[in-house]
Amino acid sequence: MKGGAHIDIQDERGDSLLMKAASESRTEVVSLLLKVGANIDLQNERGDSAVILATVKFHLSVLKVLVRAGADLNLQNQEMLTALMISSTSARTDLSETLLSGPNICLDIQSVRCVASYVPEKCLASHVIRSYIMISSKAGNQKHNILCMCALLMRANKQLS
After folding, report:
1. Is residue 121 in some structural domain?
2. Mean pLDDT, consecutive 10-residue segments, the chain of 161 residues?
3. Number of domains composing the chain
4. What's the pTM?
């Protein structure tokens, strides 16, 4: 950057310029920072990345830019939560769908369990997903099957909203 400032400089909480732009829904600034080489996967002292911050603040346009730019969608914060786990707690299925469209999303059984924990017990989707978790724990898990279960969860969450 001009003037010698480092693009990934962090404040006292560890937030970078990219993280601040992501949490404030400044899509154009996020795009510009990525073009000049900002570290897309930098995490602050809470373990939050730009992807997690955009998800927490429901900034879909920023999230799309970060996913397209190849952000690591599997980073966990200090609470051991990924952006997908966080998005599953809201009625904003568009956030989860955007994250699931990412080429490097890792869907393991722990992620599905976390997502499933937010669906009420009496919901049919909850029973299907819990059954799937039991089966895939024994038989191994495949990304396609987990994606189907996550899609089912998102639909169930949408119906409950």
Report:
1. no
2. 73 97 98 97 98 97 97 93 83 81 72 59 52 51 56 57 51
3. 1
4. 0.72
